Amino acid sequence: MMPFELPPFLFFYLAGALVLFTSGTPRAVLMLLIPVVSAVNLWLTPEGSYGQLAFLDLQLTLHKVDRLSILFGYLFHIAALIAIIYSLHVRDRMQQGAAMFYAGSALGAVFAGDLLTLFVFWELLALTSVFLVWARRSERSYRVGMRYLIIQVLSGLLLLGGIILYSREADSLSFVEIGLHGVYGWLIFLAFGIKCAFPFFHNWLTDAYPESTPTGTVFLSAFTTKVAVYALARGYPGTELLVYIGAAMTCFPIFYAVIENDLRRVLAYSLINQLGFMVVGVGIGTALSINGAVAHAFTDVIFKGLLFMSMGAVLHMTGRINGSELGGLYKSMPKTTVLCIIGAASISAFPLFSGFVSKSMVMSAAIENDYPWIWLMLLFASAGVFHHAGIKIPYFAFFAHDAGIRTSEPPVNMLLAMTIAAALCVTIGIFPEVLYQLLPYDTGYNPYDATHVLAQTQLLFFSALAFVWLNLRHMYPPELPSVNLDAEWCYRRLAPSVLQRITGVVVAANTALRTSAAKLVAWVLAYISRHHGPDGLLARTWPTGSVVTWVVVLLAVYLSLSLF
Amino acid sequence: MLSHLPILQVVVPLLAAPACLLLDRSRLVWIFTVLACGLSLLISMLLLYQVSQHGTLSYDLGGWDAPWGIEYRIDLLSAYVMLVVSGIATLVIVAAGTGLEREIPLEKQTVFYVTYLLCLAGLLGIVATGDIFNVFVFLEISSLATYALIAYGRDRRALWAAYQYLIVGTIGATFILIGIGFLYSLTGTLNMQDLAARIPDSAGSRTASTAFVFIVVGVCLKLALFPLHLWLPNAYAYAPSLVTAFLAATATKVAVYLLIRLHFSVFGEQFASSSLPLHGILLTLGLAGVFVASLVAIFQPDIKRLFAYSSIAQIGYMIIGIGFGTAIGLQATLLHLFNHALMKGALFLALAAVVYRLGSADISAFRGLGRRMPWTMAAIVIGGLSLIGMPLTVGFVSKWYLILAAIEAGMWPVALLVVTGSILAVVYVWRLVEAAYFQPPENELPEGLDGPDRREAPLTLLVPTWLLVLVNIYLGIDTRLTVGTSGAVASALLGGGQ
Known about the structure:
Oligomer: heterodimer
Helix content of chain B: over 70%
Number of helices of chain B: 19
Distance between the termini of chain A: 68 Å
Number of helices of chain A: 21
Structural class of chain A: mainly alpha
Order of helices and strands of chain B: HHEEHHHHHHHHHHHHHHHHH
Number of domains of chain A: 2
Shape of chain A: globular
Order of helices and strands of chain A: HHEEHHHHHHHHHHHHHHHHHHH
Helix content of chain A: over 70%
Largest interface: A-B, 40 and 52 residues
Structural class of chain B: mainly alpha
Strand order of the largest sheet of chain B: 1-2
Radius of gyration of chain B: 22 Å
């Protein structure tokens, strides 16, 4: 065995352990070096299975390299390196250590050759990432982290349940295509779906990601959901249900993103929207669409990271993140503004930016495989994405009305990290072959044909026009100085009034349901604590006499059972 | 020498006990006890090796042949249980060197070590012997020693807890003796092998059934099966912390061993299930124990009591495994028997370190402890994860087999309930984690503790604790020893006697 076949998670775990005991320059050097060394190691590892291990009576494969996993492997190394550079200034051992363990767990998960190993890293992902949510060290972030952890661990438990059933059905636990067969298929599907933020399971994402630290969110946005996409691509390619789920995921977050004020939460919604494209790609299941899904995961990590980094920089420098409180920052943060716009252009899939080359593959696959309605939904979602992520984010943070904040550019390391990400966005956009070479299938796809470019440009211009028009209509404030039309209010008015009414009904029903559920829980807890609490019937110290009575009763029961 | 190992296993601690009295200097006695325990650990390792290589060992005491004389019979099951008992006993006694300082006055320490060794001799004797009356004798030796050990607790309630255990334990032992008496009157023999051969002849006789019922109830009392567990929480909570660590990891395990031995080797699966709907009873009581005790644990403010209730819940899991009546279920029980000893040993040793520094095991004492005693708390967290059944710890291995057994037996609800029980464990372990890592420490220290006492526990306590923690992790990854042995034992027990 060559020395160059170590699983990448080992490097990151080692770094995570060392980070806990070092500080200052050595720590910075160590943290920068590890992803590089690990990436070289990965590059030198030929495809194959390594680290075979017998556990219980199962055969485990700790480290399995093939074309699908290696792409995610490179992606996670790049993402980790960028995020590490971005967070170099942070002096918080817990956060830095947790981030390294988190990145390592993601790598462990994508290189897991069998389901049990996948499960272990699946849970470790949850356990290590929750520290990034807690890193703000506020009461609120503690609560959010707990909610996040519970949902993530639940996903792991479902996965384990599915694996146990799977192990009864299949001969080996190796991670191959599973499909929606039997209970196990659905359990594992559900587990993947929770981590992939399927509709109705997505709340953990929009709840937790915006509550992390500026740097923590960058790590969080890169790994957990992409591991889930990887798992879906491996376990459920061509599952038709995924097409519809994915299409729903691309559309529903748009409405929420439009009315959301916290700009990082807007990005969290748009993260779900982008995941939707990948899920659709996995669901269609042709070579082109899988390629599209995987390529989109690749580009999304980078441009979404860039957007989160630019918003993190804003939060870091101003301490504010609500769209209504920001504005006019382009004067004091011009570089950040430019970088953010590059990210926005990429996510909106402008030609020559990275989003274009990956998203168009999924769209082409949808139309080629007779999903015209899905294609329309994706088109609508593309317009929506441009609207809330492409325009809203840069517009309200850096332009709009001047909030009077005077600050300066973020620290050098943050700028550097953003620049690297922006450079990657543009490079992939202009030279898509670099990315296409790495994809699992060879399809000879070319995104820059006339139809695509024209359709996309048209779409973008028309939705830009719509934004400008609506904006002009509503942004002109009436000549009443007392009416303060701040950004958030304006956006709430933009949303159709019908939607608002529906939202009202949903909110009311939701509140009623929640209060009754809370009452039920409180009642159950009170009931349990009455019997099980320190002085409860079942916990109190009993007199010896009654203990003996129990013995006699039990003996009598046993005797009568056995004799009669 | 090697052929005498079965008897040496029992005789070494048994004779070391009075020898302690001769030394009579507490430090010297400690060293001597450590040596004696280490020797018995060595013997049990050798025995396990020999048994796994050459099969069952039989030793005739005093040269009297088996059915008439007393036979010591070491098969894979006994060797497996003796390994964990002597291993835990050794680690606990190493920790006792400094750990006892704060809990037992110096002049009483010699007697403590004597009692400890007697208890160990009794427990090992139960496992080693192949004679059913001999089992009773060793049961009494270990029980009497246990009552005394519990009564050493500083809290005055310890005396009362020991008294209650004395009453209840004696009733249990009497039941067992009555059962043995019935068996003797029926078959005229006390040798287990002989009994196993003769009992099928008298299947259907009321005497045999009654004997079985008395023995099962008596043993269930000793292993604290719900609802016969009422003696246990107080005994564990008020005994000296190290005694709790020892008892929690060994005494109940030996009782479970006894249930398995009598059920499968002496009466035999067929007799047992025909005379009593035992599987249903064990499943029901085991599950009830898991839920009642886990829920009680969630609300407990005293952490020693919390883990005592958690022990009752874990015993519930072991009993569920027997209740399936399948080889894989029995294997799950045997795995959990071994693994639970490892995790509870680690947890109670870490608690002993906390009590050593803070003088209290109340939840309020744990606030902010993550910073003050990082290593101790880390041990508690890993032990707790093992208790929950996280992968990479031994807890996962036993839960895995238990769930497999439930699915194999087609009992879906049971599998779900086992998982739910693990979630309850998450809740009570989390309470500790939350107090230790997310709450600020209390400013004022308990009285009589000065500056240096705020620090991490001494190494003599930490090293044994962490040894157990590492074993928890190691055996959670490399499962050949536990899974292999327990699998062989389970198939041997269910495949027609010994």
